[in-house]
């Protein structure tokens, strides 16, 4: 094992702190970050980058106690436990092993570490890593300036507490921005929100990557899933959540009686909220209505190997979100299958991205064609537009998928992190130089 670690302890390697799936693990058991990191890091490795992943423990002793390889250029050390106050200490300890590795990518979502205590300690960890001479690129998967926007999602109604939490987030963003060389987000709107805490010159927008999908015909997919050819199938993919409007789309489609419109509610309980009493109530009510509706099929979690089949069977993928606080993994899936997409008006800021506006122009669609209000009548009107301009909607998704292909996204990561890092300060050189 020591020989393997030494092989990766070199200046052209990269350290990554992230959630990462083990072989055979359902990514749904981890987080959306794990799904993203697996795809991105494998592409970076494919382009020649050596990567050391400092990942969370899985609970499997044999896996957690060993260094595993994921291909030729990736090794995974499972060094921190989700929900543990000592998680950041173990990350720092592992980083000390790799004194020759200067580039570091920190992939962050608020629930990755499983609690408030580890998150509060992240600026302390970043300070230590900077003293070690690490050049840090910090990747925000979510940005929320005003916590009151997601009060229903986190079940906090006290206005004073919401203001305190918003102030705390501002302090956290400011500290992370100060200690990191680069900040990375997936949407232009998130740059604008972060720029109230971090200089905009430090923030970079790189889209969530799209991978090419395995081709599968709609007829074959529907035959396998027992879906009628005449049905117009809309799909809502991902964790069932309030901020994603899962309950709204269920109520809206359930209202449509004697119609060929069907909804695939493709997702299960949120991995980060499933143990919360308020979320259990929300999830139970939403799923009960879905399962009692003749127009809705609830699939629960879809195994990775079957995701292509469900997307191939659908006609349009919808995003009835109430809040924009992150990029959308389900959107990346939809684009990889070149499926028509519809966005709620709460996601209008997605179109601040140049590639989104360019895709609209190329497909000769209007902004109003692809957006709907969270209103039953307006939503049904937009479904009619999709059916009448179906080829144009396909062209929109195909154009956007090309711009966001994972090979070009990975090159942007490599370019962003290629700057020469600062050297170790003398004290740490003496204390931690290898014998």
Task: Give the averaged pLDDT, no decimals.
Answer: 90
Number of strands: 14
Main beta-sheet strand count, sense and barrel state: 8 strands, mixed
The strand line-up of the biggest sheet is 3-4-2-1-5-6-7-8
Distance between the termini: 18 Å
Low-confidence stretches: none
Helical content band? 40-55%
**Compute the gyration radius: what is it?**
22 Å
Strand content: 15-25%
Structural class: alpha/beta
Overall geometry comes to: globular
Q: How many helix segments?
A: 20
Brief overview, please?
By secondary structure, the protein is of the alpha/beta class.
Please, could you describe this protein's structure?
With 435 residues, this protein is α/β, with parallel strands linked by helices. Helices cover 44% and strands 15% of the residues. The chain has 20 helices and 14 strands. The strands form two sheets. Strands 3-4-2-1-5-6-7-8 form an eight-stranded mixed sheet, with helices on both faces. A six-stranded parallel sheet has the order 11-10-9-12-13-14, with helices on both faces. Strand 12, helix 14 and strand 13 form a beta-alpha-beta unit. It is globular. The mean pLDDT is 90.
């Amino acid at each position: 094992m020591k020989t393997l670690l030494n092989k990766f302890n070199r200046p052209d390697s990269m350290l990554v702190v992230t959630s990462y799936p083990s072989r055979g693990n359902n990514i749904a058991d981890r987080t959306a970050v794990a799904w993203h990191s697996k795809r991105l890091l494998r592409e970076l490795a494919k382009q020649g980058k050596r990567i050391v992943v400092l990942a969370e423990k899985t609970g499997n002793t044999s896996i957690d106690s060993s260094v595993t390889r994921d291909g030729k250029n990736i090794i995974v050390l499972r060094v921190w436990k989700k929900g543990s106050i000592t998680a950041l200490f173990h990350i720092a300890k592992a980083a000390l092993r790799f004194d020759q590795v200067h580039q570091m990518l920190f992939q962050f979502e608020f629930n990755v570490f499983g609690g408030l205590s580890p998150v509060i300690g992240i600026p302390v960890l970043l300070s230590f890593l900077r003293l070690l001479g690490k050049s840090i690129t910090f990747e925000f998967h979510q940005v929320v300036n005003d916590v009151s926007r997601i009060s229903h999602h986190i079940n906090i109604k006290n206005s004073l507490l919401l203001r305190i939490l918003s102030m705390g987030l501002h302090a956290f963003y400011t500290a992370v921005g100060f200690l990191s060389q680069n900040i990375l987000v997936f949407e232009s709107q998130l740059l604008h929100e972060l720029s109230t805490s971090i200089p905009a010159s430090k923030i970079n927008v790189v889209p969530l990557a799209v991978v090419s999908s395995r081709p599968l015909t709609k007829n074959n997919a529907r035959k396998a899933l027992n879906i009628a050819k005449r049905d117009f199938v809309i799909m809502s993919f991902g964790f069932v959540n309030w901020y994603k409007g899962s309950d709204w789309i269920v109520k809206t489609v359930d209202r449509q009686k004697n119609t060929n419109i069907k909804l695939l509610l493709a997702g299960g309980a949120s991995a980060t909220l499933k143990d919360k009493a308020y979320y259990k109530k929300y999830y139970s009510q939403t799923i009960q209505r879905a399962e009692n509706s003749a127009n809705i099929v609830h699939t629960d979690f879809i195994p990775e190997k079957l995701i292509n089949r469900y997307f191939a069977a659908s006609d349009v993928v919808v995003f009835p979100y109430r809040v924009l606080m992150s990029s959308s993994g389900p959107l990346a899936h939809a684009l990889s299958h070149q499926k028509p997409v519809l966005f709620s008006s709460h996601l209008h800021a997605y179109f601040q991205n140049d590639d989104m506006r360019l895709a609209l122009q190329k497909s000769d669609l209007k902004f109003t064609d692809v957006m709907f209000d969270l209103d039953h009548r307006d939503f049904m009107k937009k479904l009619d537009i999709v059916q009448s301009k179906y080829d144009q909607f396909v062209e929109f998704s195909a154009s956007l998928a090309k711009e966001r292909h994972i090979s070009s996204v990975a090159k942007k990561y490599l370019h962003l992190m290629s700057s020469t890092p600062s050297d170790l300060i003398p004290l740490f050189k003496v204390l931690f130089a290898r014998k």
